[in-house]
Amino acid sequence: MGFGFGALVMSKFLAPLLLQLSDGNLSTTFYYVGAVMIVLIPVLASFLQLPKPDKTHEKKPERISIARHIQSKPFIVVWLIFTINIVAGMIFISFQSPLLQDILKMRMSDGTNFSDGETMASLAAAGATLIAVSSVFNGMGRFAWGSISDKIGRMYTFRILLALQAVIFGLLILVHHPVVFSVLVCIVLLCYGGGFGVLPSLTKDMYGSKLMPSLYGAFLTAWSMGGIIGPQIVAFMKDNYAEKAGLFAFVVGGGLLIVGFFTSFLYRRKDVINLEN
């Protein structure tokens, strides 16, 4: 939830306040953000406590080959589909505001002066509002899809996430209305958050509680990879195909989601079980 609502707090409360205090100076604003974080995070972290070890169930540590699992087919399949789910979300987390502003500019009159401060401020405010709203959906997705996966199964839920986003990316190619665009972005971010809601339970189902911490951490390297690929897709399109950057990014993202959907059918629960034997 923190990932989603953190964006809400930053975009609508903290960032505007600090920008105002620094008279719009971005460098100074980042110094202020750093100062707030360096004070706030240690204070909040001081309230965290590790649970006391249960001596009645304490056992000698066992040597477990994590590498065997990471190199296995089930791990690779889940890693790939999670990476693709991250890529889809990161396309919008990084560029939802510029993409929305591009759509809004298309609907403005030909004589609009986009260098005017008031016009740019209104566009930026619209982008910040979308970031705030979509971040709420990002947070909600972790609860909603996690609960759904408890009822229908983890991999079935991942398939729904991938298929739904593939459809939405297809619709985004045709959409030129800012409200419809914003709604679709929120659904994508709902699915993005859903991946984080499903993955911990899937990891535990696959490997058990003893291996979960190590292998869940290994799965999260997909988050890093997706965080690189997603923004680079949109950045490349905006640098090389400025007028159709959104269109091409949606085509690439939708294609990856389709690949991820079909890749999910390579997952076999029995392969994980056999690896334990």
UniProtKB/TrEMBL annotation:
InterPro entries: MFS, MFS_dom, MFS_Riboflavin_Transporter, MFS_trans_sf. It is found in: Membrane. Keywords: Membrane, Transmembrane, Transmembrane helix, Transport. PROSITE patterns: MFS (PS50850). It holds the Pfam family MFS_1. GO terms for cellular component: membrane. The keyword Transmembrane applies. GO terms for molecular function: transmembrane transporter activity. The chain crosses the membrane at residues 30-50, 75-100, 120-144, 156-175, 181-202, 214-235, 247-267. Residues 1-272 form the Major facilitator superfamily (MFS) profile domain. This is Major facilitator superfamily (MFS) profile domain-containing protein.
